[in-house]
Design goal:
The chain is built from 3 helices and 10 strands. It is mostly beta strands. Strand 2, helix 2 and strand 3 form a beta-alpha-beta unit. 10% of the residues lie in helices and 23% in strands. The strands form 2 sheets. Strands 4-5-6-7-8-9-10 form a 7-stranded mixed beta sheet, with no helix packed on it. Strands 1-2-3 form a 3-stranded parallel beta sheet.
Length: 191
C-alpha cells in the first residue's frame, strides 16, 4: 500500500521493474498519490494493481503559451489535493477537479492567483469564497454543487471572468454581484 505520498507514474513503473523477480507480491495499492495511470509491465500484469484517488500534474503547451494543468477528474477526492497549496502549484493556470466529492475550498486554495480556468463541477461545494483570490480567472465551472450564493467580493476580484457555468446549484435568486461583471459573455445558472 502506497498512500498519501507523491508517487508518480514513473515511480510505480520503477517499483514494478524492481518487483519483476519478486513473485510473492500479489497486490499493489496506490492511493492519494500523483499516479493517475500506469502503462503495462510484466510484474504489474501478474499482480492486482489498484489506483484510487490519485491525481496527476502535467504541462500542456497550447500555441506559444504554456499552461500548467492540474487534472484529477472522478477520483473520489474528498478534499483539494495537498499539492495545490505547494509553492510549485502557484504556476497552475488550469485546474480540473470535476466529479469528485470535494465539499469545501481550503484557505490555501487562494495561492492560485495565476489561475485562468477552474472546473469544480459535480462536487459537494456549498460556497466558493476562496475563488475571489483568483483575479486572472476567465472560466469558472461549478455546476452540480450545492452553492446558494456567490461571494460579495466576486465581482470586484474576478473582473476578468468571461465564462460562468453554475447550473444545477441551489441558487435562490439571481446573484446580484453578476450585474457589475461586464466581461461575462457566457452565463448558465439554469436548474
Amino acid at each position: 500500500l502506497l498512500q498519501g505520498n507523491q508517487v508518480t507514474e514513473e515511480g510505480v513503473l520503477g517499483l514494478g521493474r524492481a518487483l519483476e523477480s519478486n513473485y510473492s507480491m500479489i497486490k499493489l495499492i496506490v492511493v492519494e498519490n500523483l499516479a493517475a495511470r500506469v502503462s503495462s509491465l510484466p510484474a504489474l500484469e501478474r499482480m492486482s494493481l489498484c489506483l484510487k484517488r490519485n491525481w496527476s500534474m502535467s504541462v500542456q503547451v497550447q500555441g506559444t503559451k504554456k499552461n500548467n494543468v492540474f487534472k484529477a477528474n472522478s477520483q473520489g477526492l474528498l478534499r483539494i489535493p495537498p499539492q495545490i497549496a505547494s509553492r510549485e502549484a502557484k504556476s497552475i493556470t488550469v485546474l480540473d477537479l470535476e466529479g469528485n466529492n470535494i465539499s469545501f475550498l481550503p484557505p490555501s486554495f487562494a495561492v492560485l492567483v495565476n489561475m485562468i480556468s477552474v472546473n469544480l463541477s459535480e462536487n459537494s461545494l456549498v460556497k466558493i469564497d476562496e475563488i475571489c483570490a483568483m483575479t486572472n480567472l476567465r472560466v469558472l465551472r461549478v455546476s452540480g454543487n450545492s452553492i446558494e450564493t456567490l461571494p460579495a467580493l466576486f465581482a470586484k476580484r474576478c473582473r476578468k471572468l468571461q465564462h460562468l457555468e453554475m447550473q444545477q446549484n441551489k441558487l435562490r435568486e439571481f446573484p446580484q454581484v453578476l450585474v457589475d461583471m461586464e466581461e461575462i459573455s457566457k452565463l448558465n445558472l439554469s436548474r
